[in-house]
Design a protein that fits this description.
Layout: H1 10-19, E1 28-34, E2 40-46, H2 48-57, E3 61-64, E4 69-72, E5 81-88, E6 95-101, E7 116-119, E8 122-125, H3 133-137
Parallel strand pairs: 1-6
Antiparallel strand pairs: 1-2, 3-4, 5-6, 7-8
Helix pairs in contact: 1-2
Length: 139
């Protein structure tokens, strides 16, 4: 599977945007999955503007609820996600972004944000950081 080009057809982009059922806050959850391995990398949110930008550029853009702003994945860390395919669930209220993740996906320096599990009666890390988080954001 190769990286798709941005969706150049404005009509096609509008059709997908109209098919998404954003919640009352104007958001939709997005699961990011590595396209070639199936590894689940992260869960984030998109608003209409983030989804439109993702479709137009091919670079995955999310909506940061804490910053109340668009979040272009990798903008500060260099750990960019390129869109390979975008899928809408059967209810239209969730997205699956198949991506090509450059580097780690998690702000903790781990490949995946889903790196904690119940082990021996406690929640513990099941994946060590691959990158020191300070090097991701002290650029």
């Amino acid at each position: 599977m190769s990286e798709i080009a941005p969706v150049a057809d404005a009509t096609a982009r509008a059709r997908l945007l109209d098919a998404v059922r954003f919640d009352a806050r104007g958001l939709v959850p997005v699961v990011a999955q590595q396209h070639d391995t199936g590894e689940v990398l992260m869960l984030a949110w998109m608003n209409r503007a983030a989804l439109a930008e993702t479709l137009a550029t091919g670079r995955v853009t999310y909506y940061s609820r804490s910053r109340d702003a668009l979040w272009r994945k990798g903008e500060t860390s260099g750990q960019v996600q390129r869109l390979v395919d975008l899928r809408l669930d059967c209810d239209g209220d969730a997205l699956l972004a198949l991506v090509d993740q450059q580097g780690v996906a998690c702000h903790t320096g781990r490949r995946s944000c889903f790196s904690w599990a119940l082990r021996e009666g406690a929640v513990r890390s099941v994946a060590e950081p691959l990158v020191d988080p300070k090097t991701l954001y002290d650029r």
